[in-house]
Amino acid sequence: MQPTEGSIVSFMVLVVDDEPTVFELLTRIAQKAFPEATFINTRSAPETLIYLAKTTKLPQLVLLDIDLKTESNGLALLPELVQRFQGKVPVIIFSTDGAKLTIEQAYHLGAVAYTVKPDDLAGWTDYLAVMRAYWYKTTRLPTEDSLN
Hints:
alpha/beta, single chain
């Protein structure tokens, strides 16, 4: 179901990021900037895959950090997510790395967008406002029924 003017429809965002501060900022700022969003956090590739295997409700959107300080980075996880979601769930790279080669790799592996993490509170607020405007209000994603 897509939002209509004045309606509140839950919008689940899976955040794959190992920095607790990032997740805390997203959830705190989203209370005002994107109140329809529910953020779920996993901190590594294995944790993400276990979560997805156990959950009955897939996210509408994934924010994937490249620099996971574990045995595998976000770029290694990206093809697995793209294959698992079969193109139904957009995976957005969400990183501090803006290197041209990294950006090219991300798109080659199936990312639908590459975004750079903001570096201040105003930037985070803008980031969430844009995310809400584009992914929640403007685009039409598969319905919840077709995701599961």
